[in-house]
Structures are given as structure tokens and as C-alpha cells.
């Protein structure tokens, strides 16, 4: 007898990142035993895919091919798999999904959930935390109570900066604020080589602010076009929204109209526009500082979703973070359900050896930590800056079956200088627009506000970030050091007083 399709799928997925608890597996097998002993309709309804039947058989076909090649597991096949999965996550996270065809499948699922089981949220079986089901979305909508936002281009000002908000929009169309999470990030065009690995791992909306003063505008536009048209998949088109900003002292001579340039595909034989020596950019040649927080804030303000993950563009999140995190929020177990303090969800950070690809799972990461091909972030640059509370316990603890809050930390004591990177919301404090990247400690003012407001830092059990491969060592940078001492005294003499007046001072809160 042929092995039922879904078993093939479960087996495969376990090799990757698919996690189903033993209890749930039992429930599934129990049901299937019954199903197959009776009349044998195709078992494909069991695939936890919410789209229509054709999608499902495509998945089965794909996974069989994938299994054949498994011994030969190259980066290319990983890419292919991630690409495939993107369609699935896109289908499950976007509002445009056609679900009518799956109604018979969900009828069946309801009957299965009548089988006694420990998990109490199994109204749609089997429970796959990498997929957002309709009932999860309904729960999220109720829990978050957020407001959907408009998604149209605007030209605005932010201090001395002009902002072309939603200059080139992702093709995903309007988004409901509870249905996905936005990574918000920023950079000069010379950093855009990071965008493809970022979107391949994130598979959800990205709001990206590009600093494009003067003649950096044209290569920025060309980079956007190249990334949308020439990367071999449509993830950038699907997910990434580009904003442009520049100082009013460095307005580009010509601002191309996206409605015009998006009409014709980019010539992909031209050189990669962002592959330049960074010392050749307008920003470097005119010796401008990088307004890192202006970029961060523009990207965050434009995000359409309730939850946001503000990242520097060289940090790549662990795959499936979006559905895993949102499913965790929907389950609403303690401490989520019992704490009413303001909260954010920090991720653990790592660097990896240049010759390796970023790990896909915590298990793989732990293997790399053991043989030192991965290390905690900035271990050789600023070990205390990114040390997270209970960090060594986090590294030692095995992956949990489902995403959960591993530990609730505070920014105090040994961690009073912590600059966490986290999933947060629009109600969190912004970064201070006046601080430059060159001046360092640019996230500290926000972290101080969190401390003063008694935020809880709910560290996620299975989620992590990996820096673009390559381990960093401390290198003296006299230019940065000069700005760093200037910025430190500005923070001390000016910003500190402001924050104390506005947010109050709390013992143990350090700026
Ligand atoms: C495995 O990889 C090698 C080298 O890349 C290739 O020649 C071979 O065809 C692959 N085998 C399969 C089954 O894909
Ligand atoms: C949904 O189904 C309807 C009717 O079958 C079809 O017209 C429409 O194009 C489908 N939409 C999508 C997004 O597949
Ligand atoms: C589910 O259970 C109900 C009542 O027990 C039964 O009438 C129905 O046929 C079942 N549906 C399926 C798809 O097994
Ligand atoms: C999801 O469930 C809600 C409530 O049960 C229902 O109103 C809605 O139509 C469903 N959406 C889809 C796409 O099936
Ligand atoms: C695309 O660029 C290549 C390399 O510069 C050039 O040879 C080719 O003619 C261009 N194609 C088109 C259609 O412009
Ligand atoms: C970039 O250009 C500068 C100055 O022109 C040069 O010193 C440096 O080596 C170049 N870097 C790379 C990676 O080519
Ligand atoms: C280190 O561990 C990882 C994950 O287990 C493995 O892929 C890699 O080959 C190992 N590298 C060395 C040098 O041992
Ligand atoms: C780490 O967590 C454990 C329990 O999870 C707790 O007992 C311990 O005090 C924590 N350590 C630190 C340094 O926070």
C-alpha cells in the first residue's frame, strides 16, 4: 500500500522546521488509521494547507521531489524549498486567500478535535505553528484590537529630512494589522545585498527606508528595480516596500517617478547596482553621518501591522518566526495572559563563521555554537552590549515544541546597558532622530524609556537573529570614536535631562 501523502510530508517537515507535538501526531495517526480503514478518499485533505486543492497537490509533488534530493541537500535546494514555503505563508498571511475549497477539510478537522487531547486549541488539525489558520487570525484580531492602516505614497518631512514614504510599494496590497508582522529596516543602497537573504528568511512584509542623499538617488532606484526584477524570485516584489529619505541640504537633482520606471523591467545584464565600494557613495564622499534613527523611525512608522521587528539590515531572523510568534500570541498562555506590564519580545543574536549559511533552527544553531562556528553577537566587539538576561541558559535549552516566552527579563543590574532587538508594536518609544550611527549607542535612549516605564522583556524560546556571515573583531575607528565622544556628551547633557523630565527617573535605569 502506498504511504499516505501526509505522512511523507510530516516526515520531511520534521527534518526541516515543521514541529508537531507528539500528542498531536497521535491524534492525527489515530484519525488516519480510522480514515484509511474505511473508504479511501485521497488523504491529501490532511495537509495543513489552507488554500485550494491544486495548491495541495503541488505541495505533495514538490515534497516528493525534495525528498529524492534530500541526500544532496544543497543551498540551492534549500532556496527552492524556502521559495515554495513563501507561497504557502503568503497564502496564509494575506487576506486574499480563497478558502472555500477547504471547507470539507475543515469539517473533517472538527470531528478529529473531538478526540481527547491535551492541547485545547486544536479546533483545526493538525496544529502546525508554521501556519496561521483562519481561527488563529480571528483570535489575533480579537486579542490585538488594532487598526488597519492606509497604504499609499506620501511625501513628508521629518526634522531636516524629506521622506518619500511608500515610494515603491510591495505588491501584497492592503494588509490587516493583525495578520502578519513587518520587519522595519534601513540602509544606504550599498547595503542592499542583504535584502534577498532577509526576505527569504522573513517571508512577510518588510518596510525599508533607504538613505539616498544627492547622487545616491539613482543607484538606489536602480537597486530597487534590480532587486524586484533580477533575483530569480518575486519575494522582493511581493513583500518589500521602499521608502527614500534625504536631508534638505542634499536633495537629489532628479527624483525618478516610480509609476514610470516600474513600467519597464530592469535590464538584468547591467552590473548589480548595489555592489559598490562603500567609499564611493555620495554619502561618504561628502562625509555625511548616517542618520540611523531617522531611517529606523521612518520604516517603523510606515509599517502596516500591529507587530513590528525593527532590525538593522544585516540581521537575518530565524525562519517561520512570523507564524510561530503570532500563533503564540493567539494561544495567549502565561506569562502573556497574566502580565499587564508593557512588553517587547527580544531575540537572541549570533554571529557565524563566514563559510557557513545562517542556521535554520535553534538545534542547528546549538551545533554551531558547540563547535564555535557560531558565537554570541559582538562577543569580540562589545560583549556586554547584547548579552541577554539568561543568555547562557537560552543557548543550553533545547528547542521547545512550540514558540514560547523563555524568560521575562528586565533592563537592570548586569543588563542595565542592554540594547535589545525585539518584536514590539507602534506604541513603543521611537529611537531618537538626533543620534547618528557613527556616534554609537544610538538605541540607548529608547532602552532607557523602556526601563523607566518598567517594560518586561519576554525573551522568545526558539527565535534568534544571525548577522550576515562573518565574525567581527574589534577594530579601532578614529572617525567613529571622535563622533562617539561628541554623541555621548550630547546624550548626557541634553537628552538625559529631557527624558528624566518626560518619563521620570527610576533607580537602576541607565542611559
Ligand atoms: C547532487 O549534486 C551533484 C553536484 O551538484 C549533481 O551532479 C547531482 O546530479 C545531484 N544529484 C541529485 C539526485 O540531484
Ligand atoms: C477565488 O475564487 C473565485 C471564484 O472561484 C475566483 O473568481 C477568484 O479569482 C479566486 N481568488 C483568488 C485570490 O484565487
Ligand atoms: C463528523 O461528525 C458528525 C457527527 O458525529 C457526522 O455527522 C459527520 O458525518 C462527520 N463528518 C465527517 C467529515 O466525518
Ligand atoms: C474565517 O472565519 C470567520 C469567522 O468564523 C469567517 O467570518 C470568515 O469568513 C472566515 N474567512 C475565511 C477566509 O474563510
Ligand atoms: C542590457 O545590458 C547589456 C549590458 O550592458 C547590453 O548589452 C544590452 O544591450 C542591454 N539590453 C537592453 C534590452 O537594453
Ligand atoms: C574601496 O576604495 C578605497 C579607496 O578608493 C580603497 O582604499 C579600498 O581598498 C576599497 N575597498 C575595497 C573592498 O575594494
Ligand atoms: C559545526 O556544526 C555545524 C552544525 O552541527 C556543522 O554543520 C558544521 O559542519 C560544523 N563545523 C565544524 C568545523 O565542525
Ligand atoms: C535564569 O532563569 C532561571 C529560571 O529560568 C532563573 O532561576 C535564574 O535566576 C535566571 N538567571 C538570571 C541571571 O536571570
Short description:
With 511 residues, this protein is α/β, with parallel strands linked by helices. It has helices spanning 5-15, 22-37, 53-68, 75-93, 103-112, 134-144, 195-202, 217-229, 235-239, 258-261, 282-285, 292-301, 321-331, 362-370, 391-396, 444-452, 478-503, and strands spanning 154-158, 161-168, 181-187, 206-211, 240-247, 307-310, 315-317, 343-346, 348-352, 374-376, 405-409, 422-425, 456-460, 464-467.
Q: State the domain count.
A: 3
Please estimate the helix content. 25-40%
Note the beta-strand portion: 5-15%
The Cα radius of gyration reads: 24 Å
Averaged pLDDT, please?
81
Task: Report on the biggest sheet.
Answer: 10 strands, mixed
Oligomer: single chain
Question: Which descriptors would you attach to this protein?
Answer:
17 helices, 511 residues, binds 2-acetamido-2-deoxy-beta-D-glucopyranose, alpha/beta, 14 strands, disordered N terminus
Describe what you observe in this structure.
It is a single chain. The chain has 511 residues and is an alpha/beta fold. The chain has three domains: 80 residues; 195 residues, no CATH class; 179 residues, no CATH class. It has 17 helices and 14 strands. The chain has a ten-stranded mixed β-sheet. β3, α7 and β4 form a beta-alpha-beta unit. α6 packs across α13 and α16 packs parallel to α17. The longest helix has 26 residues. 41% of the residues are buried. The N terminus is likely disordered. The structure holds 2-acetamido-2-deoxy-beta-D-glucopyranose (NAG) (8 copies). The site of one 2-acetamido-2-deoxy-beta-D-glucopyranose (NAG) has 5 residues, from α14.
Amino acid at each position: 500500500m502506498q504511504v499516505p501523502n501526509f505522512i511523507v510530508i510530516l516526515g520531511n517537515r520534521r527534518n526541516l522546521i515543521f514541529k508537531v507535538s507528539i500528542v498531536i501526531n497521535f491524534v492525527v495517526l489515530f484519525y488516519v488509521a480510522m480514515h484509511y480503514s474505511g473508504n479511501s478518499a485521497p488523504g491529501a485533505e490532511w495537509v495543513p494547507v489552507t488554500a485550494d486543492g491544486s495548491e495541495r497537490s503541488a505541495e505533495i509533488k514538490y515534497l516528493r521531489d525534495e525528498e529524492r534530493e534530500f541526500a544532496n541537500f544543497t543551498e540551492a535546494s534549500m532556496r527552492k524549498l524556502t521559495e515554495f514555503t513563501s507561497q504557502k505563508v503568503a497564502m496564509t498571511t494575506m487576506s486574499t486567500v480563497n478558502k472555500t475549497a477547504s471547507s470539507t477539510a475543515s469539517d473533517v478537522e472538527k470531528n478529529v478535535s473531538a478526540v481527547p487531547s491535551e492541547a485545547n486549541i486544536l479546533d483545526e488539525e493538525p496544529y502546525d505553528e508554521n501556519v496561521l489558520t483562519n481561527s488563529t487570525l480571528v483570535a489575533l484580531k480579537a486579542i490585538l484590537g488594532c487598526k488597519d492602516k492606509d497604504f499609499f505614497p506620501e511625501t513628508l518631512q521629518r526634522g531636516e529630512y524629506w521622506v518619500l514614504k511608500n515610494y515603491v510599494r510591495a505588491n501584497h496590497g492592503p494588509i490587516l494589522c493583525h495578520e502578519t508582522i513587518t520587519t522595519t529596516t534601513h540602509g544606504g543602497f550599498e547595503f542592499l545585498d542583504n535584502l534577498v537573504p532577509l526576505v527569504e528568511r522573513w517571508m512577510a512584509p518588510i518596510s525599508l527606508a533607504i538613505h539616498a542623499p544627492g547622487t545616491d538617488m539613482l543607484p538606489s532606484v536602480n537597486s530597487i528595480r534590480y532587486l524586484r526584477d533580477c533575483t530569480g524570485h518575486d519575494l522582493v516584489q511581493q513583500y518589500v516596500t521602499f521608502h527614500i529619505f534625504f536631508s534638505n541640504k542634499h536633495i537629489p537633482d532628479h527624483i525618478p517617478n516610480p509609476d514610470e520606471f516600474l513600467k519597464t523591467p530592469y535590464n538584468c545584464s547591467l552590473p548589480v547596482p548595489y555592489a559598490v565600494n562603500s567609499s564611493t557613495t555620495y554619502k561618504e564622499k561628502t562625509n555625511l553621518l548616517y542618520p540611523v534613527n531617522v531611517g529606523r523611525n521612518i520604516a517603523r512608522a510606515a509599517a502596516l501591522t500591529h507587530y513590528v521587528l525593527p532590525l538593522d539590515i544585516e540581521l537575518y531572523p530565524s525562519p517561520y518566526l512570523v507564524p510561530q510568534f503570532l500563533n503564540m500570541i493567539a494561544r495567549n498562555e502565561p506569562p502573556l495572559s497574566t502580565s499587564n506590564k508593557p512588553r517587547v519580545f527580544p531575540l537572541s543574536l549570533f554571529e557565524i563563521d563566514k563559510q557557513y549559511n545562517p542556521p535554520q533552527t535553534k538545534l542547528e544553531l546549538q551545533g554551531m555554537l558547540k563547535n564555535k562556528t557560531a558565537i554570541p553577537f559582538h562577543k569580540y566587539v562589545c560583549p556586554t552590549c547584547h548579552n541577554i538576561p539568561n543568555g547562557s541558559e537560552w543557548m543550553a535549552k533545547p528547542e521547545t515544541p512550540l514558540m514560547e516566552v523563555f524568560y521575562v527579563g528586565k533592563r537592570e543590574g548586569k543588563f542595565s546597558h542592554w540594547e535589545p532587538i525585539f518584536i514590539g508594536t507602534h506604541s513603543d518609544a521611537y529611537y531618537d532622530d538626533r543620534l547618528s550611527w557613527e556616534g554609537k549607542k544610538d538605541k540607548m535612549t529608547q532602552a532607557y524609556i523602556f526601563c523607566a516605564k518598567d517594560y518586561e522583556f519576554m525573551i522568545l524560546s526558539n527565535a534568534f537573529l544571525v548577522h550576515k556571515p562573518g565574525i567581527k573583531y574589534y577594530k579601532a575607528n578614529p572617525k567613529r570614536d571622535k563622533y562617539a565622544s561628541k554623541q555621548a556628551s550630547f546624550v548626557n547633557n541634553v537628552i538625559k535631562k529631557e527624558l528624566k523630565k518626560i518619563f521620570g527617573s527610576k533607580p537602576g535605569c541607565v542611559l
